[in-house]
Design a protein that fits this description.
The structure is a homodimer of 342-residue chains.
Chain A: H1 4-11, H2 15-22, H3 30-43, H4 49-56, E1 61-66, H5 71-87, E2 91-96, H6 101-110, E3 117-120, H7 127-133, E4 140-143, E5 154-157, H8 159-172, E6 178-181, H9 188-205, E7 212-213, H10 219-231, E8 238-241, H11 244-256, E9 266-268, E10 285-287, H12 290-305, E11 316-318, E12 321-323, H13 331-336
Parallel strand pairs in A: 1-2, 1-3, 3-4, 4-5, 5-11, 6-7, 6-8, 8-9
Antiparallel strand pairs in A: 10-12
Helix pairs in contact in A: 1-2, 1-3, 2-3, 5-12, 8-9, 10-11
The structure holds a DNA duplex (30 and 30 nucleotides).
Chain lengths: 342, 342
DNA sequence: TGGAGCCTTGTAACCGGTTACTCCATTCAA
DNA sequence: TTGAATGGAGTAACCGGTTACAAGGCTCCA
């Protein structure tokens, strides 16, 4: 493993000169620079980024701390982040809290000295705890987390209004007995979506206590909900699942029970995962540009790294868009909407 | 930003003692350790991992260099890697070559001094070039790349036999005029799959020059192939797409043209993306456990980091498994297979 | 009481770069 | 010819930790 010292010796110059030549700092004569570059080639020298970032106090890396790396949702976020980071020649250091609150502290601490800034998505962490973990000196942007009290910039999805809009749309299509399949209890997204649903049901539908079935965002829990619905003979003309994944499970469950969608019952989801438009009938949902969650956050972080001081006031709220497809359409529409056909 | 020096001063000890106390090195008396820990708490000290890794010559990080971060395929790989890395308390540094051969060199070089080992997936890079870029002193495992000549361990999918098996299955179901939709020309996976197809057609089907349509692994190119097939009136009783993505596009295209699957024509893919089993009819395909690609590679790398010397002989070949679903089934089977039903 | 041996702690070098500061050799104007 | 200005190159401190080695204090035994 060759070091700058080796290169300097080989070229017959000092380490300072070698460093300057390699970094193109100008105050080096052409012959000297040539000699250094020749030594670099000969010894196959590659600068040690670790050492460099120690003195420069810059790592050209951002830490990304996500609750999990599972599924399309997170890969889309990472893709969005990478898209922007790559343009600025920044690297991504992945930290994973694997769902454990305790590991979050460790993950954040491990980033010290390795990154210039942090993108953190702490779905079910209390703001006070988070404040304890974070280093105020390290530029940080939160993902999908409203941290108003911490005065940190964040990027979030307007889950509340998204759910409200979808419920409104279902009501507009004539549904009256809409059942909601909720997400995990402690999950903010899930709670906001549920709130949007109940509020819309109350204000527009005039239903004060709509039916809500438990779920955990998994396909399986969607299928489970279908069973509850059918066997429990819960009256329903539409089901609004808190995410697409559950809607997929739900539809499969309903099909098994011989219920037709949207004939007997309409179904709607949330997220617009790629699968949504390939189902048959295709799934109506609220489209969230997940990658933008990542790229927007990364852009905010870049501004902070450039010296700007950003706070909660710079938060960006992404509004999901209603995508009406087959599962909420009339009979005719259902058969032509996307995907394969029998 | 507090340093170890600050902690030492606060606790009234030397930096060496502070360091030993913090790292639990034993030869520190209980009162001294307590004093140091109190100072750590008081000053909110978090060790600077960058500096630490410089002296330790260990970063507890592995570099992951992928051609792109797009899509399920890569997110699954990363998830597999993370699963194993997390157990060993290793971090993941993402480098992205964004498809450009030139950037590959830069991405690898940037890893020097930041990682203890490398996982690289260089789909269309010549071995000689790759050898130039890689640092022989840095433990490296290749993903989905047979680098026999470089004597590096690698993990790959047996694309050839996978394609052979699928073709065999289609022939067994009575297909005679099977058309293959190929992947990108320079892509190794694509070429191996095509070879498996043509060999099976020759050896089992007795067809020496089967029809092959161009594709690029995208859904769009699958739809394009459907158009060529239908409008060009190419005789075909089955289509074997080089990946599921194209199969999805193909099926949509065939549906548009009024062809029924599998009634008029059978369809098969490769990869078993999650979408595959949700299509209606569900897609027959070769299942590849993509996450295992990542986790297996990471396990090999860990062994190298522990001091073992591994080479091409330690390569692991993952064999894909045939998943027969609706798109290659008889009429009856097609209607009950997974997904929703009209 | 003196010395061997053990344990705790401190001093300082080191990891591999960057860069402030200094020195020295030109060049050019007076 | 002399002195100032210019700029190329070297010395050494520094980033923030770790750790080899040395030093000092203690116990224990002869």
């Amino acid at each position: 493993m060759t070091t700058l010292r080796d290169v300097a010796r080989e070229a017959g110059v000092s380490v300072a000169t070698a460093s300057r030549a390699i970094n193109g700092l100008g105050n080096v004569t052409a012959p000297t620079r040539a000699a250094v570059m020749a030594a670099v080639k000969k010894l196959n020298f590659v600068p040690h980024s670790g050492a460099r970032s120690l003195t420069r106090r810059k790592t050209d890396t951002v830490g990304v701390i996500l609750p999990d790396l599972f599924g399309e949702f997170f890969s889309e976020i990472i893709r969005g982040i990478d898209l922007v980071a790559h343009e600025s020649e920044m690297h991504l250091l992945l930290g994973n809290m694997h769902g454990s609150t305790h590991e979050t502290a460790a993950a954040i601490a491990a980033m010290r000295g390795r990154v210039d800034g942090l993108l953190v998505m702490p779905p079910d962490l209390k703001p006070e705890l988070l404040a304890d973990y974070l280093d105020p000196a390290l530029p940080t942007v939160l993902l999908n987390y409203d941290a108003g009290s911490l005065d940190l910039p964040f990027v979030a999805v307007d889950n509340y209004h998204g759910a409200y809009t979808m419920t409104e749309a279902l009501l507009a299509r004539g549904a009256r007995q809409i059942v909601h399949i909720a997400g995990p209890k402690h999950n903010r997204d899930a709670r906001d979506r549920q709130r949007g649903f109940t509020d819309a049901m109350a204000k527009i539908g005039g239903v004060l206590t709509p039916a809500i079935l438990p779920g955990d965002f998994s396909e399986k829990s969607g299928a489970q909900a279908a069973r509850l619905l059918v066997q429990g003979q819960l009256p329903a003309d539409a089901v609004f699942a808190a995410n697409d994944q559950m809607a997929v499970g739900l539809i499969a469950g309903l099909a098994e029970a011989g219920k037709s969608v949207p004939g007997d019952i309409m179904v709607a989801g949330f997220d617009d995962i790629p699968l949504a438009r390939h189902l048959n009938p295709s799934l109506s949902t609220m489209q969230v540009h997940i990658d933008r969650l990542g790229s927007t956050a990364m852009m905010l972080l870049l501004r902070m790294l450039r010296g700007e001081t950003l706070g909660a006031a710079n938060a960006t709220i992404l509004t999901p868009e209603l995508i009406a497809r087959g599962t909420t359409a009339g009979e005719a529409a259902a058969t032509v909407a996307g995907g394969a056909r029998l």
